[in-house]
Amino acid sequence: MPVDRLPERTAVVLIDLQKGITALPTVHPAADVVACGAQLARAARAGGVPLIRVRVAFSADGGDVLRAPTDAPPPAITPAPDFAEYDDRIPVEPGDILITKRGWDAFYGTELDLQLRRRQITGIVLAGISTSIGVESTARTGREHGYDIAVAGDAVTDLVASAHDTSLRVILPRLARIDSTAVIADALARG
What we know:
Elements: E1 10-15, H1 19-22, H2 30-46, E2 51-56, E3 97-101, H3 112-118, E4 123-129, H4 131-144, E5 148-157, H5 161-171, E6 177-179, H6 181-190
Parallel strand pairs: 1-2, 1-4, 2-3, 4-5, 5-6
Helix pairs in contact: 2-6
């Protein structure tokens, strides 16, 4: 369903658009996803809409990294020292709300819900990397918390094409409305 209107109290949530994640080999060029994220950030800031930047980071000793056995381990990467720094192509500005998560879901173990509720936010726009992990996990929890969710379909990508496609075509339409960055940015501007 097209995103013709957003709730009056909406926030934009950019997930894992950070140096270590945008440097990974994604299905769609990360630069394109970051550019769409920057467009959403500009629209949010221009419209007085809260902009929330979410990143994933872990303690130096790695004690907060999940280690449960799985059949498909995460990609084997050695995080660079700047892994958790926000991508400079979307500069952090005063007033941005910065959230650090320790896993996939931007709600779990963070103050995201608290920050939204204290601002009386009822709707969220999601964008970021990766579609099937950070974005989908956050959308699932956001739905359980009762948020009206929109996803900028051209502002998400994944490391695995089939995972991206399943999330965008099967899972996320059951949790959110999906439209283009341009349409969502226009809806943000209209309030």
